[in-house]
Amino acid sequence: MSAHHDVAVHFISSLDSSVLRDPVTPQEARKVLWKIDMTMIPMIMVTVVLAAVDKVIISNAAIYGMKTDTHLTGNQYSWVGSIFYFGYLAAEYPVAVLIQKFPVAKFYAACIFAWAIILLCTAATQNFAGLAVTRFIMGMLEAVVFPISSILTVMWWTTEEQPVRVAMWFNQLSSVFAGIVSYGIGHSHSSIHPWRLLFLVLGAFTMLWAIVLAIFLPDSPVKCWYMSDREKFICIQRVRKNNTGIEDKTFKIRQVFECLADPKTWLLVLFSFAQNVPNGGLVTFASIIVSGLGYSALNTTLLGIPTGVLATVWQLFLSYFASRLRNMRCAIIALANVVPMTCAILMWKLPRTNKHGLLAAYYVFYTYWAPYVLSTSLPMANTSGHTKKLTMNALYFLAYCIGNIVGPQLFRASDAPYYSHGYEGLLACVAIAIAAISAYGLLCHMENRKRDRQDGTVDVQTRREDAAASAFSDMTDKEKKEFRYTY
User: Fold this and answer.
1) Residues sharing a CB contact under 8 Å with residue 186, sequence separation 6 or more, in sequence order
2) Which residues form the Major facilitator superfamily (MFS) profile domain (predicted)?
3) Under 8 Å CB-to-CB from 8, ≥6 apart: which residues?
4) Are 71 and 127 a contacting pair, CB within 8 Å?
5) Structure letter (DSSP) for residue 127
6) 396 burial class (0-12, 13-18, 19+ CB within 10 angstroms)?
7) pTM of the model
């Protein structure tokens, strides 16, 4: 066993024998899972939705007069959308390191509180420079959201449970919340301009939520304040078969190099980039695209709500099947991407006079998010070794960042209001994403078969015992010969 053991090993070694003596019953396991679902999912979900709302509200602010009041010209608005992800990009690696240095939940809450302050400051901006600075800093602070949410997911749920749970917290309900808030503020009679009021209201709400998280979100199962020692032990035993460990604060450079040398790493990176170019474009231009079809600002905010509902339902549908069908996740992702690819063609080729057809294609295109959500657990589930997991996670969301930087640049001011070049770009990116995730799934399948051949003389029980022995050591998936990849 590796000399580096994670906190789970230390916790188990400190337990009284009475806690460890009795085998875990199915009833106990179900009760603990229910408690995890009822507490952790709401906390992660609200955080992710708030982060998305705080990020995408720029689109509704644009149709409420922000572009005029801040004197944006040419493609400056596109850069306001992109610069958020430059901040995200700048902070991604420091965040990966800081996660290892500080308690996860407290670090999470501190960053959320800080970006709430920046959101409040955005309401006071007067020009492009002010917007650029606040958006850049917000991007840096929001860089914690996906890495920490992914780490929490792997800490608390088994590989089989992860797809549905990720689909629940990594949803598109932000457009529902943003639409309702924007519509209400659009009817206000305040002396404050509606777009400024948007940032003030959301900033205050986010600040309150950060305080809630600081009080209630546990850093890990072994530090969970609302569970007994027996329940904590069951939590650890549940995720033991993930074979990815719980937590180890030691940084190991060899695990970084191993991650960089793995071709599977770069296929996931390419997929993440290609899948997020459309996201970057729509986050920034969604309301502008809809209002360009002839709808008023108020109606446009309401017309954005169905995208969140449709995307979330589709996401849960795909995640259910991914959790039921073993090693079919990559195939489901590739096939599901055919839907937004078809919609990209329709948005590109339909006559501009066909307003309802264009709006329908725009709505259904939002199914692009579900394949990406399905993929987000792959980097963590298929990577063992704490430093390697964090490196993989950082690279994956580095690609997320770059894709979102490129996305707004596809929608140029000179193409308004039809943005035909933007739709061409969306089509190309979805096609690339299909190819990348298909190749990744094939490599995982081939590696599993290779390990099965090499390990063919070892019976299943022995393999399970080997996996259990190394589950909480900080070894990588390459070093654990009993490790099998999920695809």
Assistant:
1) 64, 194, 297, 298, 301
2) 40-453
3) 221, 222, 236, 245, 246, 247, 472
4) yes
5) S
6) buried
7) 0.81
